[in-house]
Amino acid sequence: MRSNVDLLIITDDLFLFDAKRLANFRLSNDRLNTKVVTVNEIYLQFSSSTPDISSIRNYIKYLYEKSSKKLKYVLLFGDASYDYKNRIFNNTNYVPTYQSRNSTNNIYSYSSDDFFGFLDDDEGEWTENLLGDHDLDVGIGRIPVNNNVDSKLVIDKLIRYSSNNDFGRWKNDIYLIADDGDYNIHQINAEKHFDLVYSNNPQFNIKKIFIDYYKQELVGGVKKSIDGNIKLNEAIEQGSLIINYIGHGNEFLWAEERILDENSIEKWKNRSKIPLLVSATCEFGKFDNPLITSGGELMINKGDGGSIALFTTTRPVFSQTNFLLNDQFYKNVFKKQNNNFLRLGDIFRITKNNSLSGPINRNFSLLGDPSLTLNYPKLDIEINIPDSLSIDTLRALEKYSFNGEIINNGKKVENFNGEVFIDFFDKLSEKQTLGDESDPFSFKQWDKSIFRGSSSVNNGNFTFEFVVPKNIEYNFGKAKITMYATDSLNQIDANGSNIEFNIGGTSKNFSLDETPPDINIFFNDRTFKSEDNVSSNALLIIDLYDENGINIYNSDYSNNIVATLDDSINFILNDYFISFKDDFKRGSIRYPIENLDIGKHKLEIKVYDTYNNIGKESVLFMVSNDLKIKINNLMNYPNPFSESTSFSFEHDREEEDLEVSIEIINLNGKVIYKKSEIIENSNNLVNGIIWNGKNSNQQIVSDGIYIYKLHVKSLFDGAYNQLYKKMIKRKL
């Protein structure tokens, strides 16, 4: 028996293959010593083959002591059930969980995997009161799969997340989502979390979705927050490191206004931008009822998106104890040990141990792999105060130039070459909710953007410049910069911030500018011309230019970037603009417009520059269901070939996710080989699709002429196309 185990995976025979896949990956990728064992093996050794949760706990304790307490993480890989007697049809008690003695009270009963982490000699019989406030000795997580399809999808997702390190500015974002009512307690708690994160980790952009900030509507007799639901779905689509909901809910939805439900989760396609989700609400992660699939289970088991893990609840909980746990989470989620970020199991263990309040907070579980490390940006970014700043203060209509460095342990990273993305904000703005169920509530938001752009990073150095827009708030206060940088060659990223700048007042040295910005409007790609056809789901692309830059300051009154559809529907696009790399004067907007009606439409764009000069432009377009992707220059090389050949093609759906398949067909019309793959955020040139000259049974095919079919489908709007070409296989 291996005694120096870091990660123990306990599973059922049904999921053994996928459990071993994860164990092997953690060994090779994370250098964790792993062990996989089935519950039946544990029962055989520790309870005479009788299913018994105490035997599982005792086995973990045995391994913990054999490893000299080196064991850190335990993953329970399989679903559980409250029915230990298998009375329910299709019961799912693969890896059982602890059930409280009080199982009839809906409020005070609970299930908890914490029991398996109480490993001291005087523990093992859990007193279900304050005397039972034991510390967890290992980080416990569960992946509640109940079939082989889900087990494969989840392990694929975990391996993809830890292997690819998907880059993007979304890794700088955290969302705090709060319910209304209850004397604003959920919004109050969210504000406290905001203050804590901003004080300790200002490099993150903390965004808020407070339900009471949005108008609520009656839909089919049910009060809903449609705008709140849209904002949440946009947060999922754009990506974030962490999403945190605080408020009422149940197994299937968040809030009475249904800001989230099962239908929303099913539609998510956030495969490459998967967050950690924290849900301080009742029962959302309930995994021990075989008769239902909870929202938490849907999220963790969703192969093409959802969440990478959840800190969530299995039974009813209370706002007071929720806050204690949520507060400890933010005190630990960004901590490092030996210059490495903590793994989820460490964060969960410390969070739980520092927020004990009797059995109540035992209803929080980690659904996910406790040995996983979130895809945090690894390095730091520092910015220097330019000499042009007068007493460190930025003023309206002044042009400023900044420089900065990529840092690791206080030293510049000389071999970092890539791109840095910058978000520059005016002072914290004050917002107020509508007061639908409680009094109106005032909260703070970093939402007044004065610049958003990117710059080249060369040998760890970068510079950028911009003009401060005319319509900032003229009172003096602190500005904020957040930055995110990537080096794709070295596969590493960084983030940082600066909150030392003051901003306010107007420059005395600005020059006159009365020229409006230039506007060019396209759909899907830049070959679009006015009155062209598009699909009912189309990607709006707007290219903008102005000598002094584009105004993206989120104004409550005017001067926003606005798209108006058919003179009636307005879209505010400030948050979707980003300046081109190394050029603050030029930039682009990419915004998906969905569910357009068939027929002719007009779109008008209104844009302001930083001097508040207004520019307007409009286009006409036709919406049609008969839409195809344009495919050009399809070829395979070499052709003829003897052993393998590579396919390439160009298309007009750059930056969309594509489903691409190649079929090899012999002259009898039989498909002898097929390969499909998802290409995320595709370039206009796709290459590297290789066929090794073998059929689906991995047998080398004979020499001769073959037909290949390329099929390309957009995952954004369903547009597709397919082409056929021939190739020759022969000995060369």
Written overview of the protein:
The chain is built from ten helices and 45 strands. It has about 725 residues and is an alpha+beta fold. The chain has five domains: about 5-130, Rossmann fold; about 165-365, 3-Layer(aba) Sandwich (Rossmann fold); about 380-505, Macroglobulin (MG2) domain (Immunoglobulin-like); about 520-625, Immunoglobulin-like, CATH 2.60.40.650; about 630-730, Immunoglobulins (Immunoglobulin-like). A hairpin with a 5-residue loop joins β44 (about 705-715) and β45 (about 720-730). The longest helix has 17 residues, at about 150-165. The protein starts with 6 loop residues before the first strand and ends with a strand. The mean pLDDT is about 95.
Q: In short, what is this structure?
A:
This protein is α+β, with helices and mostly antiparallel strands.
Low-confidence stretches: none
* CATH-defined topology of the largest domain: Rossmann fold
Distance between the termini: 53 Å
- CA-based shape: globular
Write the CATH architecture name of the largest domain: 3-Layer(aba) Sandwich
Task: Describe the protein's topology.
Elements: E1 7-11, H1 16-29, E2 34-38, H2 39-46, H3 53-66, E3 73-77, E4 98-99, E5 111-112, E6 139-143, H4 148-164, E7 173-178, H5 185-200, E8 205-210, E9 217-219, E10 222-224, H6 226-238, E11 242-246, H7 262-267, E12 276-280, H8 295-301, E13 309-313, H9 319-332, E14 336-337, E15 340-341, H10 344-353, E16 364-367, E17 379-384, E18 393-396, E19 399-408, E20 411-412, E21 418-425, E22 429-432, E23 442-445, E24 449-457, E25 461-467, E26 477-478, E27 480-487, E28 492-498, E29 502-506, E30 518-523, E31 533-534, E32 538-545, E33 562-565, E34 569-572, E35 577-580, E36 583-593, E37 599-608, E38 614-623, E39 631-637, E40 645-651, E41 658-665, E42 671-679, E43 685-691, E44 704-714, E45 720-729
Parallel strand pairs: 1-2, 1-3, 3-6, 7-8, 7-11, 11-12, 12-13, 17-28, 18-29, 31-38
Antiparallel strand pairs: 4-5, 9-10, 13-16, 14-15, 17-19, 19-20, 19-25, 21-24, 21-27, 22-23, 26-29, 27-28, 30-32, 32-36, 33-34, 33-37, 35-36, 37-38, 39-40, 40-43, 41-42, 41-44, 44-45
Helix pairs in contact: 1-4, 2-3, 5-9, 9-10
